[in-house]
Amino acid sequence: MAVTEEAIQHAMTQVQKPQAPARQARWSQRVTETSNALDLDSGVFTWHDPRRIAESLKASAERSERRKTDPFRSAMSMLNFYINRAGRKLPIAQRACLEAAKDELRKLFGKTPATG
């Protein structure tokens, strides 16, 4: 039984998987940089001073006219978003600094410290 070139081409097209659409690279970075809620200072999440990070987030949240909730929630949401999206790639020391920034943010807004 002879196999024709046409049969081979047909078989090859049946085996190939369809290409998935290209995944949008670094969507969380884009959200962090172009958020519709806050205009963040450049590199705010890479700073090593929790108080400075919290003050910057507070100032950004208070001056924003595009946020959808109160300034405290906007600032805390952006901080949590960054921590969650960085995940395991976030160095331990920087994670600790950002977690401390949450407490500083609560102090700046006169909120009760987190328990636990």
Q: Helical region count? A: 5
> What is the count of structural domains?
1
Q: Which percent range describes the beta-strand content?
A: under 5%
Radius of gyration: 23 Å
What structural class is derived from the secondary structure elements?
mainly alpha
Q: Count the strands?
A: 0
The shape, in one word, is elongated
Low-pLDDT sequence parts: none
Q: Could you describe the largest sheet, including whether it forms a barrel?
A: none
Q: Cα distance, first to last residue?
A: 75 Å
Helicity range of the residues?
55-70%
Q: Helix and strand succession?
A: HHHHH
Query: Mean pLDDT, as a whole number?
Result: 81
Which descriptors would you attach to this protein?
116 residues, mainly alpha, 5 helices, 57% helix
